[in-house]
Design a protein that fits this description.
Blueprint: H1 6-14, H2 19-46, H3 52-69, H4 72-80, H5 87-103
Helix pairs in contact: 2-3, 2-4, 3-4, 3-5
């Protein structure tokens, strides 16, 4: 896939999912993109240093809050995984999946 854009990857990856799994996947993508955006803003406007560790930590905290708040898709995915995968690990898998497809 030449010139695979994020939105194209998201559409392709999501097309194979259904129901609450798709809801959870979309929620994780939105949460991850929002946290990356916040980190970029922190770096640009507050002079911070880019940090994947900071983003993953924030992702873990936010995903757990979404779970507790009852976000159906996120709750379903985390329950399905039996919490064996930490929320940040789920996010990392999504990022690596995108990167591996984009390199093809």
């Amino acid at each position: 896939m030449d010139n695979l854009f994020f939105v194209d990857w998201w559409d392709e990856a999501g097309s194979r999912l259904f129901g609450q799994v798709k809801e959870g996947f979309n929620s994780i993508i939105i949460l991850g993109a929002w946290l990356i955006w916040k980190n970029c803003n922190y770096c640009v406007f507050d002079g911070g240093t880019p940090s994947l560790t900071r983003v993953l930590s924030a992702f873990r905290e936010e995903a757990q809050q979404w779970y507790v708040a009852g976000a159906r898709g996120v709750s379903y995915l985390l329950a399905l995984a039996g919490w064996l995968l930490l929320p940040s690990a789920v996010f990392e898998m999504v990022v690596w999946s995108y990167l591996s497809i984009a390199r093809q």
